[in-house]
């Protein structure tokens, strides 16, 4: 089996996140979910939430699905790196993504969500595509949609073809040759503790020399930006007039009129260049002449993160075989 579904930016101005239609239960309830390779819980806004915490999101009502079953005595609670979080109880039901159906998928129904989720009307929940070791359901942890589907897939892979300010695609079970050019460079994945962790071979700022030094980080479709070591980030912003690391804005900002260099990162011998226009993320507040950078320091994070800003300049294969690997190709 295979599946293929659109990854649609939730905001027309800048790529905060991407959502994908997912149908749940019988009759089908369709929600727009954020596919997140940086976590491993499938959770949704649900009929178990106080209405005060719902602001425009679609909800899943298990009691309206003839195929829903309560996973008795189980609960979940998750906190993300940006401090957002949610918690609730658990049902199993049929979940379909782009024509690929998994029966008895654990659907984690929110009973509480943090304010940043309530404020994001376009995200009805998340589909974790990390390794199932990260799943937070207790007392018995549950498998991700990908892990449940894997055995039935033509090939144990999913691919991300994210795009700048336009819809891309998540494919399951196959590698679409029409989505990339040249060769796919595969590198090892360390899935302990459960992220798609790989080593980048180095970086370059603008037309500068390539600095060949391994940078271990996670491929995270659920994070908007890139978070890298201070040495890399200072080398980049040294080339940006008026750039400063702002405590008040929580990261590197610069005048929106500044000339930005491109940023190139390596995967093995391959090189991926993020154009200058992508490196300015957004005005710090609407209409401000101060812009927030797409490249930020991972100092406070604990791990380096290759988020959507890096993923969108490549076609990325998340290979869930044994051993797992990750492949990067130009497009
Ligand atoms: C400092 C960084 C801030 C952004 C963090 N990313 C996330 O929290 C990803 N995520 C998933 C669900 N909601 C958000 C990673 C650390």
Present the secondary structure layout.
Blueprint: E1 3-9, E2 18-24, E3 29-36, E4 42-44, E5 69-79, E6 85-97, E7 100-113, H1 115-118, E8 125-128, H2 145-150, E9 157-163, E10 166-172, E11 181-188, E12 197-200, E13 202-205, E14 215-219, E15 226-228, H3 230-237, E16 244-246, E17 251-255, E18 263-267, E19 270-274, H4 276-279, E20 280-283, E21 290-293, E22 295-297, E23 305-306, H5 308-311, E24 315-319, E25 325-330
Parallel strand pairs: 3-8, 4-7, 14-23, 15-22
Antiparallel strand pairs: 1-2, 1-10, 2-3, 2-6, 4-8, 5-6, 6-7, 9-10, 9-24, 11-25, 12-14, 13-18, 15-23, 16-17, 17-21, 18-19, 20-21, 24-25
The chain binds 2-(1H-imidazol-1-yl)-N-(trans-4-methylcyclohexyl)acetamide.
Quick take:
This protein is mostly beta strands and 331 residues long. The chain has helices at residues 115-118, 145-150, 230-237, 276-279, 308-311; strands spanning 3-9, 18-24, 29-36, 42-44, 69-79, 85-97, 100-113, 125-128, 157-163, 166-172, 181-188, 197-200, 202-205, 215-219, 226-228, 244-246, 251-255, 263-267, 270-274, 280-283, 290-293, 295-297, 305-306, 315-319, 325-330.
- Note the main sheet: 6 strands, mixed, barrel
What small-molecule ligands were found?
A: 2-(1H-imidazol-1-yl)-N-(trans-4-methylcyclohexyl)acetamide
Order of helices and strands: EEEEEEEHEHEEEEEEEHEEEEHEEEEHEE
> Residue share in helices?
under 10%
Residue runs with pLDDT of under 50 for 5 or more positions: none
Radius of gyration: 20 Å
| Oligomerization state | single chain
Number of strands: 25
β-strand amount: 35-45%
Helical segment count? 5
The computed structural class is: mainly beta
Taking the alpha carbons of the first and last residues, their distance comes to 25 Å
Based on Cα principal axes, name the global outline: globular
> Could you give the order of strands across the largest sheet?
2-3-8-4-7-6
Give the overall pLDDT as a whole number: 98
């Amino acid at each position: 089996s295979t599946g293929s579904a659109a990854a649609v930016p939730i905001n027309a101005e800048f790529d905060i996140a991407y959502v994908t239609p997912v149908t749940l239960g019988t009759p089908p309830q369709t929600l727009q979910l954020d596919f997140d390779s940086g976590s491993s819980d499938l959770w949704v806004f649900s009929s178990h939430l106080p209405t005060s915490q719902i602001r425009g999101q679609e909800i899943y009502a298990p009691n309206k699905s003839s195929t829903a079953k309560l996973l008795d005595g189980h609960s979940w609670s998750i906190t993300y790196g940006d401090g957002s979080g949610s918690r609730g109880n658990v049902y199993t039901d049929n979940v379909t993504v782009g024509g690929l159906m998994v029966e008895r998928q654990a659907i984690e129904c929110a009973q509480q969500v943090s304010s940043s989720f309530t404020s994001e009307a376009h995200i009805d929940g998340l589909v974790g595509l990390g390794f199932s070791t990260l799943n937070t359901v207790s007392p018995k942890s549950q498998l991700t949609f990908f892990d449940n589907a894997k055995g039935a897939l033509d090939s144990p892979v999913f691919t991300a073809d994210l795009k700048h300010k336009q819809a891309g695609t998540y494919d399951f079970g196959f590698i679409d040759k029409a989505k990339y050019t040249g060769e796919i460079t595969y590198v090892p994945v360390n899935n302990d503790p459960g992220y798609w962790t790989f080593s980048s071979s180095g970086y370059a700022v603008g037309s500068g020399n390539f600095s060949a030094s391994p940078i271990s980080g996670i491929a995270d479709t659920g994070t908007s930006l890139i978070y890298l070591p201070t040495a890399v980030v200072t080398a980049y912003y040294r080339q940006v007039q008026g750039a400063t690391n702002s405590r008040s804005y929580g990261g590197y900002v610069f005048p929106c009129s500044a000339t930005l260099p491109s940023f190139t990162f390596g995967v093995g011998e391959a090189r991926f260049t993020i154009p200058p226009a992508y490196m300015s993320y957004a005005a710090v507040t609407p209409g401000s002449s101060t812009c927030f950078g797409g490249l930020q320091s991972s100092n406070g994070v604990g791990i380096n993160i290759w988020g959507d800003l890096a993923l969108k300049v490549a076609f990325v294969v998340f290979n869930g075989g044994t051993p797992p690997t990750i492949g990067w190709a130009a497009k």
